[in-house]
Amino acid sequence: xxxxxxxxxxxxxxxxxxxxxxxxxxxxxxxxxxxxxxxxxxxxxxxxxxxxxxxxxxxxxxxxxxxxxxxxxxxxxxxxxxxxxxxxxxxxxxxxxxxxxxxxxxxxxxxxxxxxxxxxxxxxxxxxxxxxxxxxxxxxxxxxxxxxxxxxxxxxxxxxxxxxxxxxxxxxxxxxxxxxxxxxxxxxxxxxxxxxxxxxxxxxxxxxxxxxxxxxxxxxxxxxxxxxxxxxxxxxxxxxxxxxxxxxxxxxxxxxxxxxxxxxxxxxxxxxxxxxxxxxxxxxxxxxxxxxxxxxxxxxxxxxxxxxxxxxxxxxxxxxxxxxxxxxxxxxxxxxxxxxxxxxxxxxxxxxxxxxxxxxxxxxxxxxxxxxxxxxxxxxxxxxxxxxxxxxxxxxxxxxxxxxxxxxxxxxxxxxxxxxxxxxx
Length: 425
Prior knowledge:
18 helices
């Protein structure tokens, strides 16, 4: 064993025995170990050091010798394994990182207890590697375990659950939006139910006008939009059938999903109305927050083909903004150009502004006072012979809805808009 490896083993053993001050007493050892060990082991505030292959081998050998001396489940071993996993992550070795993080969690559970929250930082690192390697099933399982762990410690309705509920609901929503993994409809329903749970906890703990409701209500609005646009196409049906084994379970779940879809408009409308109420009840909210929520409610109605209701709400919002200080600036911000819908937080609109993609379609179109695209013309495309991309753009614009441009309080047609649609390679 090299001298530096002997020092490393001594440091690990000393730390495991509670003699962490060995480093302070012997600075030459700290300097040597700093060349081998991830800084997360020596300094929790710095995890940027990346081990070379040889250093990695030395570190693995040192951990093995520590296990031989103190057993495979010594409490401090979890910390060292986590440091190794972080280095694997930094080098893009996410499969190895995930394996080490799982081992670190196993050691942590044995040494500190099955329900210890000290597992959480390791578990979050594991999720990062699951996602980076495209292991969506494991990422979902890790998220569910993260939720279970917090619920076991705090209880289902404790306000300390709110951060983890937000994390898990956003995960399910993104998994659905990115079309990853199996059982997509389950991601959608889980996200919806978690946002509903968050609203309930905030209502009971902080009151029905608390500003913290806004985030959960926005998530609920987005989940309702996805529910409304959920299509039981052959692809979706295949995904749906893959979620459960029995025909009866499939039928029950499909009936539940159909009910969610049926209620999506009214549920989303209620969520946005509550956002308006919250802003109206909180003097610290931005001056335009309540009006912006009213515009989002008008957008919601337009998305569901309630054009007359939407226009009335737009006009009321326009008049309110125009009468306020800097009225011309704020009316221009919200009504000075057509806006592709849905224009909701957490949800990317249907027009992409990325300019560095190889495949794109540049298109010109008019937006009518009713918020529909007309006179669609393809100006440029790359590759030029991509009939598929051209067709996708035309189809997308034919069904797209826009908040129309307003002038003097009334919706008007906007001609010759141009936009560059981009496509991932």
